[in-house]
From TrEMBL:
GO terms for biological process: cellulose catabolic process. One of its GO terms (molecular function) is cellulose binding. Residues 1-22 form the signal peptide. It comes from the Eukaryota. It comes from Mycoemilia scoparia. Has a modular structure: an endo-beta-1,4-glucanase catalytic module at the N-terminus, a linker rich in serines and threonines, and a C-terminal carbohydrate-binding module (CBM). It is an enzyme of class 1 (oxidoreductase). This is AA9 family lytic polysaccharide monooxygenase. The keyword Signal applies. Pfam families: AA9.
Length: 273
């Protein structure tokens, strides 16, 4: 009986280790090449730091588990509008392990912004980046993320008011999205969400009445439905070229020009530690 208990514990621990490796979270912020310490400028994680959000109508849709309030989070010092930014994803707190996300967790990557003063409440979130399936490279954003060692690279808007902002990184994985979680609790789309706090400087659209000068936004929760094509999909039966990334379209005027794939210019590749 004792041997059976030991075997059960070993199997359970192995399963938990596999489950943990399947999860991910934003561990590090990079602004214009400056790499901040792990967890700096990022809203609190809590104990469920790498767990997926399953209830798309829950408060954790805003900034993940325990990320709803700023707590002691520092705001990254001023960087210029239009700067390059990277959000580094990892499944573990120790980024040296570089376990970014499970190989079978296919899906899309998205980035939203909102004024920090709003605390992310209401229709304040505007999309600045999205990437799903690339039919040229034949890979999902999550696969690219693994290849890039967890770095999700994008360009910040150049044509919005300067000030303090929340940057909401989101990964949507579709390996279990063939059924809605509300119908089958064992399945459903999985979302990994965290928020960073940054300060943008420069001219932009001007400093007065920031809400009026920002593009129309959406609310989290509220922007997605579990019946949206990008949230309810059977990867084994669908053509990845037909995948529709959920959420609003990117207002390319925030970049001061028509945006390329993903909404703005992609960051050039650079040497990273």
């Amino acid at each position: 009986m004792k041997l059976q208990t030991q075997i059960f514990c070993i199997v359970l621990l192995a399963a938990l280790a596999t489950l943990t490796a399947a999860h991910t979270h934003i561990r590090q912020v990079v602004l214009n090449g400056k790499q901040y310490e792990p967890a700096q400028c990022i809203r609190p994680y809590g104990k469920r730091y790498s767990y997926p959000v399953l209830n798309i109508d829950g408060p954790e849709m805003k900034c993940g588990y325990a990320g709803g309030e700023p707590g002691t989070t520092m705001t990254c010092p001023a960087t210029a509008l239009g700067s390059q930014m990277s959000l580094r994803w990892n499944s573990e707190l120790d980024i040296k392990n570089q376990n970014v996300i499970a190989e079978n967790h296919l899906g899309s990557c998205l980035v939203y912004m909102a004024p920090l003063a709003s605390n992310g409440l209401g229709d304040v979130w505007f999309k600045i980046f999205e990437e799903g399936y690339n039919n040229k490279t034949k890979e999902w954003c999550n696969q690219k993320l693994r290849r890039e060692r967890g770095y999700l690279n994008f360009t910040l808007p150049s044509n919005i008011p300067p000030g303090d902002y929340l940057v909401r990184g989101e990964i949507i994985t579709l390996q279990s999205a063939r059924e809605r979680h509300s119908v089958n609790p064992k399945l459903g789309v999985q979302l990994y969400i965290n928020c960073a706090q940054i300060r943008l400087s420069g001219e932009g659209r001007g400093e007065s009445d920031a809400k009026k000068l920002l593009p129309p936004g959406v609310a989290f929760p509220g922007a997605y439905k579990d019946t949206d094509p990008g949230m309810l999909i059977d990867l084994k039966k669908s053509n990845p070229d037909d995948y529709q990334i959920p959420g609003p379209k990117i207002d390319t005027t925030i970049f001061g020009r028509p945006g390329g794939e993903g909404g703005g210019e992609k960051c050039p590749k650079k040497k990273r530690s």
